[in-house]
Amino acid sequence: NKQGILNRLKLIKNIALTYNLIHATKKYVLVDIKPQNILITIEGKISIVDADSLQISSFGKVLFFGKVGTEEYRPPEGALINPAKNQIPESWDRFSVAVMFYELLFGIHPYAASYRGQYEKDTAIKDKIVRGLFPLGSKSNFVKVLPKPHNNLKMMPTSIQQLFFSAFEPGNNNPLNRPTVKAWADIVNIELNKNTQGK
To answer: Which of 75, 107, 79, 69 is nearest to 91 (CA)?
Structure first.
C-alpha cells in the first residue's frame, strides 16, 4: 500500500543521511553494509552496529583495514579487492546501499532471478553481481524466471527507478556512476515532499 511505501522511503532517507554523515568525513568506508548491521527504532532512528569491517583512512593512507564484505552486498569489483590488504573506495558502499534499499522496498535481492543461455550456470548471487545480471537491466533478455516482486520497481517514481538503474547498470562497470548516499537522501526527500504537499 502507499503508506507502507512512504514509510520505507522515509527509512531509506534516514539510513542514507546517517551514512552520508560518515562518508562526508572522507575517512571511513563501511565495507560491510547490510540490513543485519542496522538497528531501527519504532520512530525510524538509525544505529549502525557490527562496525568491525569499517575501513579508516587519513589523507589516502589506510589506518585500519576493513576485514570482510558480505558477498551478496559486495560490488562486482569486490572479487578483485581484498579488504584486509587493499584500500576500498567509497563507491563500494554505494553498491551495497543500493542493494539494501532495493531489498527494503521490494523484499527481494536485486539480482535474484534465473537465467538462460550463457548465464545459465550463474546461480549464486555473487556470480550474478560480477556478471552484471540485474534482471531489469541490459541483460534482461537472458532472464528465464523473473520473480514477481521485481515488477514493483516500475511502480516507483522515475527518479527512484533511475537511482537503482544507475547503481546496477552503468555503475556495474564504472563505480563512480553509482549514486552517492547523499543523492539517495536528496532524491527520496523530494519524492516524499511531493506526497506530503497539499495534506
So the answer is: 75
Which helix H or strand E contains 16, and what residues bound it?
A: helix 2-23
Q: What is the DSSP string of 81-126?
A: --TTTS---THHHHHHHHHHHHHHHHSS-TT--EE-GGGTT--SHH
DSSP notation for 159-198: HHHHHHHHHHTHHHH-GGGSPPHHHHHHHHHHHHHHHHTT
Could you report the per-residue pLDDT of 84-104, keeping only the tens digit for each?
A: 888 999 999 999 999 999 999
> CB–CB of 94/181 below 8 Å?
yes
Q: What distance in Å separates the CA atoms of residue 170 and residue 173, rounded to the nearest whole number?
A: 6
According to DSSP, the residues that pair with 46 across neighbouring strands are 40
Residue type (1 letter), 5 = I
The C-alpha cell at 145 is 524466471
- Cβ–Cβ < 8 Å for 33, 54: no
Q: Is 85 exposed, middle or buried (0-12, 13-18, 19+ CB in 10 A)?
A: exposed
Express each pLDDT in 147-194 by its tens digit.
999 999 999 999 999 999 999 998 888 999 999 999 999 999 999 999
